[in-house]
Amino acid sequence: MRTMPEFPLFELVGPPCEAPGCKGVLVDSLNLKTKDFFRKCSICGGEFHKMPAKDALDHAVRTIERVLKGDPSS
Fold first, then answer.
1. pLDDT tens for each residue of 33-45
2. What pTM value is reported for the model?
């Protein structure tokens, strides 16, 4: 039986960390084992914007659809 890895399955590097004085960047992570999406700082480890993975994926799909339709607010 194969087990899921403990680390997130994919990550995207994002904006600067929101913690005062921290020089890290926020990394978007999706962990399919825990079904969580979160942004975690690459240096201080602070977690921001944690939400269920389904909600994050629904938002991503809607954003991609708007971009493909040429919506200027995207």
1. 888 888 889 899 8
2. 0.54
